Amino acid sequence: MTATGSIGLVAVFAVDFLSLFWVARLGSQKLKVTVGYASQLQFVALSVSIGLTIAISATASRALYVTRVWSDFAATALAFAIVARLANAIRPK
Question: Where are the domains of the chain?
Answer without folding.
Answer: 2-90
